[in-house]
Amino acid sequence: MSEIKPTDPAATNAGEEKDWAAAKAFFDSLKTRKPRPPKPQYAVTIAVSSRTLFNMVAERKIYEEEGVEKYVTFQQEHENEPLMPGVAFPLVKALMTVNSRLRQLYPDSEELFDIVLMTNNHAQVGVRLINSINHYDLTIERFCMTGGQSPIGYLKAYMTNLYLSKDGEKVTEAIEEGIAAATMFTSGDVENQLSDTQLKVAFDGDAVLFSDESEIIAKQRGLDKFFEHEQEFENIPLKKGPLKCFLEALGKLQRKFYAKNERMNCPIRTYLVTARSAASSGARVLKTLRSWGLEIDEALFLAGAPKGPLLQMIRPHIFFDDQMSHIEGAKELGTVAAHVPYGIGQKYHKGELIEQPVNDVKDKK
C-alpha cells in the first residue's frame, strides 16, 4: 500500500491563493451583473437545505409515498416550474440585502454572506433548483447535492458558519460535529411581514448562545438554587453554546458598518430573547457577552413570560431556541422559529421531564 505524503501547509496555502487569484482575475474579466462569490475563508457561510429555501411539501409527499424514482422523474418533468418560496427564503433575501450594502461600502471585501445550497437531492433534481434560484434572482452559486447521502460531512469543507435544515437528525449530527445548526419550522406566510432592509436575528440564551450549565441547575434543583448560583458566579463567564460562533460572525459584519459610521443604519440587528429574570440572573449573561467581546443590540428578559407576543413585535427573520415549547409558541404567532437540539432542555417539554437524565439513573447491579 502506498504511503500518503504529508502536505506542507504553507505550500498548500500558497497554491490555494494562486488558484483563487487566477479564478478572480478570470471572473473579473467577464462582464456580468452577478456578483462574484466571496472567498470561503473570509465569508460568513450559511448552508440551507432545499426544503428550507423552497416549499417542497408536495414533492416530499411523492418521495415518501411513491419512492425516489418517481420523485426524481416528477422534478425533471416540472423543472421549468419554479418552486415556491420556503421558510428560509426571506432570510436569504435579507442576507443578500446586507451583502449589497457591504459591497457599496467595501467594493473589494471578501467579508460577506455566502449562501450554499446543501441538499441530499440527486443531481438530476439540480436543474429545477437552479431554475428556481434564477427565477427569484437569488445569489447562490455554491451547491452540494449528495444523491441521497447525508450532506453533513461536507459542512466543514464548505467552511459553514450556520446550517439550516428541516431534518432534525441532520441538525443534531451537525451540532455534534461542532457546527452551528438549527431545524427550521414553517409558520405560515410571513415573507411580506418581515423587513426587507434589515436582517433581524433573535437568539435564546441558555443552550443556544451559552452552554446549558445553568439551565441544568434550574431544571434539576429549581429556580431558587439557579438564582443563587447565577449571583454567586455572576463574574464567571458562561461557557459557549452551539450558536455563539454565529453571533460572532454577525458581529464581525456589524463592525464593518460601525467603522463607516453606520451604526444607526446597520442592516443587521441582533436580539437576546431569554426567559431569565433580569435582576435575579441577567447580569451574568450580559457580562459573559462582554467578556467575549460581543455586542447584542437588544436584550429582552422575560422572567418566564411567553416569548411569542414579543417576537411578534420584533418580527425576526429567524429566532433560535433550544426548547420546543418556545418554538411552538413563536410559530403560533407567525414567527420563523428554528430549534437548536442541544442541552438538557431536550429532556423536557413545557417543564415536564420526558426523559430521565443519565446522571440520575442509578446503576442497577
- Span from first to last CA? 48 Å
Number of strands: 14
- Fraction of helical residues: 25-40%
Query: How many separate helices?
Result: 13
SSE-based structural type: alpha/beta
Instruction: Return the domain count.
Output: 2
Strand order of the largest sheet: 5-4-1-6-7-12-11-8-9-10
Which segments are poorly predicted (pLDDT under 50) over 5 or more consecutive residues?
A: 1-7, 357-365
The profile of the biggest β sheet is: 10 strands, mixed
In terms of DSSP E residues, the strand content is: 15-25%
Label the CATH architecture of the largest domain. Answer: 3-Layer(aba) Sandwich
Pfam families: 5-nucleotidase (PF06189)
GO molecular function: 5'-nucleotidase activity; magnesium ion binding; nucleotide binding
Protein name: 5'-nucleotidase, cytosolic IB b
Textual characterization of the structure:
There is one protein chain. This protein is an alpha/beta fold. It folds into two domains: about 40-185, Rossmann fold (3-Layer(aba) Sandwich), CATH 3.40.50; about 200-340, HAD superfamily/HAD-like (Rossmann fold), CATH 3.40.50. The protein is about 40% helix and about 15% strand. The protein is built from 13 helices and 14 strands. The chain has helices at about 10-30, 50-55, 55-65, 70-75, 90-105, 125-135, 170-175, 215-220, 225-230, 245-260, 280-290, 310-315, 325-330; strands at about 45-50, 55, 85, 115-120, 140-145, 160-165, 180-185, 200-205, 270-275, 300, 320, 335-340, 350, 350-355. A ten-stranded mixed sheet has the order 5-4-1-6-7-12-11-8-9-10, sandwiched between helices. β13 and β14 form a beta hairpin. The chain is globular, with a radius of gyration of 22 Å. The N and C termini lie far apart (about 50 Å). The model is unreliable at about 1-5 and about 355-365 (pLDDT under 50).
